[in-house]
Amino acid sequence: MKILNTHAGLGGNRKKWGPGHEVTAIEMDPKIAAVYQKENPNDKVIIGDAMEYVKKHRNEYDLVWCSPPCQKHGRMMKATRHDVADYFDPTLYQLIIFLTHFYKGKWVVENVKPYYTPLIKPTCVMGRHYFWANFEIQPINVPNIKGFITNSTANETQKMKDWLGIQYEGNIYYGKNHCPGQVLRNCVHPDVGLHILNESMREGLFNKLT
User: Fold this and answer.
1) Which of 6, 113, 133, 194 could form a disulfide bond with 108, CB atoms 3.0-4.6 angstroms apart?
2) In a domain, 146, yes or no
């Protein structure tokens, strides 16, 4: 099965897909991409613009998974004591609308629960994540670890690495964010990633993983 995994981050969603798939991952940050590549040495990792890649190459894949940036949508925009008010990033809805109308394979777009009522109703809500897809997704429960939102010390981020099963030395800071846990919080848990992949194959187009 050929899968396009965009805005791939550290690859939490991909962690349990196994070796039986041909995966191309798109990630803008070289440091994050390096961790993804180490975790998934057989995947093709491209450092570049995910939006342009989807537009040009979407029809080369059986499944497209997109996890566009969530910072401008998340509830922390209003929960923090700092003034971080900003316009939301339209990338999320651009992808949903584009894939709905211009892609014939299976697709899923993931983001965090927003601070506003979503402009397009999600297909599924799981934990802190919203999923939009052109196939049915039954939710499962994967509880977050204690202190998920506030974890920022070396010991706390190590617990998050262990929870996700993704290991790397030191800290990686996402953009201008000074919290070393942010890049880990951006991940979809591997159990959720595997569940959604299996859900995409329930309709008989692909063989379900065991």
Assistant:
1) 133
2) no
User: If we measure between CA atoms, which residue out of 10, 62, 57 comes closest to residue 37?
Assistant: 10
Residue 153 domain-assigned (yes or no): no
Where is average pLDDT lowest: 96-105, 140-149, 165-174? Answer: 140-149
In a domain, 104, yes or no: yes
pLDDT value for 79: 52
Tokens encoding 171: 């800290």
Report helix angle 50-57 to 91-102, nearest 10: 10
Size (the chain), residues: 210
Sign of CA dihedral 149, 146, 122, 26: positive
Share of the chain above pLDDT 70, in %: 85
pTM: 0.88
Kindly state the helix (H) or strand (E) to which residue 28 belongs, with its residue range: none
- DSSP notation for 40-99: -TTSEEEES-HHHHHHHHGGG-SEEEE----TTTBTHHHHSSS----PPPTHHHHHHHHH
Supply the range of the domain harboring residue 55.
2-141+189-200
CA end-to-end span of the chain, whole Å? 15
Question: Is 78 inside any structural domain?
Answer: yes
